[in-house]
Write a structure and sequence with these properties.
The chain has about 550 residues and is mostly helical. It is about 50% helix and about 10% strand. Helix 2 crosses helix 5, helix 22 (about 470-480) packs antiparallel against helix 26 and helix 23 (about 490-505) packs across helix 25.
Length: about 550
């Protein structure tokens, strides 16, 4: 599926391929000498990545991409965006290297972090309040379904990612710390404690500097994750000593899950221990990436490449905040839009700030559908830069939907439809062969259109009375359509009559004529291609609608 695309991938201009080429450069530089790197590059550029891997043993290890998740809350839009975008880069890298080079995508859960505050909207808050400062995998599950709050949220994360078909490896902070997988690097952190402090302390305020330690010991008495100074270090024994508020002077090993690291050193430690090659992050973490990269080098690792994506904005252009609730949840998007439309939205200009609000969903759906339609007619060099190539790992569906989402929204309103059966009844005339089984995308869009119309469109509809010029033109259009066979479903034929009327009645510019149709007949400032709408709604029904509009009867609905 992703083989024999090396040349196309090398020349592709879309951002996943740019990132894939950066990743390839990084891995070759990280693993090979200058001479070997040049030789490997010649082979890879010639479409012989398999020979490069066979020749250079250092290249045979998988390329590792990572995303991170804080399980103190449920998976959200940012979680999806990071995994979706990283998957796009992964697939572009596979195409760039002929799909010979193994890759891993790690979804890492920082579930050993201490519960610092009770999240909003979660049951049994008093129970959670009793468990503050415990690692999330020791906090009792307020939902009562899992062994811990961390386990509950991890399960939600995995179910969430699985529902979108992502290919990933889940990794738990608690399990990796306790299993000893991080021990070697943790001992290195102990050994290079002063060098790590030299990176971190200048970034902190005076009060925090006085007590900061990269180590967060777990109290043997309370089980709390403690933010306390490190009083003594024994590199040979691999231990630290600190004052435990519950038990006084205490010594614990830094290995085996007895401590965890502060988040920036922890991030750097993961990069080092897991040999991570690629990780993206939000623009708000630029400084954190810079500091963690320095720490990674102190620990003996090589920081990954990646990029900083812009954050989402609300409808007023303000930064989205979970505490303010001014964003859009995954559940909300999927009530009104398809998963593919969300992936399309995530693909677009990740380095540019974008509004993430209900009003972007209809456009995202129809843009995705149009990109599917364009893909079939494009030459291969254009196809790899089409968003749907990245969304579907090089194999987008052959067909999308014969009807746009915008048209469905207007059909729901004009037909006063409340269920899909009513919409399918209209479709039977326009698309007599179509059924929910052979047009599953259209069937899904009907569900979303009904939901979106009821929640957002109906409350904002404003029908106006036509001007005298518009009323005359409407009656002319009704007469011309009545001259067509009543069972006409040729949208282009109907559209031609609509154009002819607009020109005959000297609308300047012509788009003012279409604006009048939308505002008077559909109660909106814009709408679908009118000929297609009339073909689906039915010619007799459309004529009746036009005549009501001409008489000003629809304005009473406002």
């Amino acid at each position: 599926m992703l083989q024999n695309l090396e040349t196309l991938a090398r020349d592709a201009k879309s951002w996943p391929f740019e990132q894939a080429r950066n990743l390839l450069d990084h891995v070759l530089k990280k693993r090979l000498s200058d001479a070997d790197r040049a030789a490997a590059r010649l082979l890879i550029d010639a479409g012989k990545a398999n020979e490069a891997l066979a020749t250079f043993e250092a290249l045979q290890k998988p390329v590792v991409l990572e995303t991170g998740y804080g399980p103190s809350g449920l998976p959200h839009m940012g979680t999806f965006g990071e995994v979706a975008r990283t998957t796009m880069v992964r697939n572009a890298f596979r195409a760039l290297t002929g799909d010979y080079w193994p890759t891993r995508l790690i979804a890492f859960s920082d579930d050993m972090d201490g519960l610092r505050k009770v999240p909003e909207g979660v049951p049994n808050p008093d129970m959670l309040r009793e468990d503050l400062h415990l690692p999330l995998t020791k906090v009792r599950d307020p939902f009562g379904t899992h062994d811990s709050f961390g386990a509950h949220n991890n399960a939600r994360l995995r179910a969430f990612l699985d529902s979108f078909g992502f290919d990933y490896e889940f990794m738990s902070s608690t399990e990796t710390y306790r299993s000893g997988q991080f021990d070697e690097v943790l001992l290195r952190v102990l050994e290079r404690f002063d060098a790590i402090q030299a990176v971190m302390l200048p970034t902190l305020g005076e009060e925090r500097r006085a007590t900061y330690s990269p180590f967060l010991p777990i109290s043997p008495i309370t089980g709390h994750v403690l933010q306390v100074p490190t009083l003594e270090r024994d590199v040979e024994a691999g231990t630290i000593t600190f004052d435990d508020p519950a038990g006084g002077r205490t010594t614990v090993p830094v290995t085996g899950g007895h401590v965890k690291l502060q988040w920036k050193p922890d991030w750097a430690m993961r990069w080092t221990a897991l040999d991570v090659d690629y990780e993206m992050s939000g623009k708000d973490l630029i400084e954190s990436v810079r500091e963690s990269s320095k720490l990674c080098r102190v620990m003996g690792g090589e920081p990954p490449v990646g990029f900083n994506y812009e954050l989402f904005l609300d409808v007023e252009g303000k930064k989205i905040s979970k505490s303010k609730g001014n964003g859009l949840t995954m559940e909300q998007w999927l009530r009104y839009g398809t998963p593919e439309s969300l992936s399309w939205y995530m693909f677009q200009s990740p380095k540019s700030a974008k509004s993430l609000h209900f009003n972007v969903i209809p456009r995202a759906i129809d843009d995705y559908l149009s990109f599917i339609d364009q893909f079939r007619a494009q030459e291969p060099a254009k196809q790899v830069d089409n968003a749907v190539w990245s969304i579907h790992a090089g194999a987008p569906p052959q067909v999308a939907s014969p009807v746009s989402f915008a048209l469905l929204l207007n059909l729901v309103g004009v037909a006063n439809a409340s269920n899909k059966d009513q919409l399918w009844a209209y479709m039977a005339r326009y698309l007599p062969e179509a059924t929910p089984d052979n047009e599953p995308v259209l069937d899904q869009l009907m569900d979303r259109a009904l939901n979106y119309y009821e929640d957002f469109v109906r409350p904002t509809k404003t029908f106006r009375v036509p001007t005298e010029q518009e009323a005359v033109a409407f009656r002319d259009l009704a007469a011309r359509l009545r001259a067509l066979p009543a069972d006409t479903t040729d949208g282009e034929l109907i559209q031609g009559e609509v154009y002819a009327v607009g020109k005959a009645h000297a609308f300047q510019p012509l788009r003012a004529w279409f604006a009048a149709l939308y505002e008077v007949l559909l109660g909106d400032s814009q709408g679908p291609r009118f000929g297609s709408f009339a073909a689906i709604y039915g010619l007799p029904e459309t004529i009746a609608l036009i005549e009501k509009g001409a008489d000003g009867e629809l304005a009473d609905k406002a």
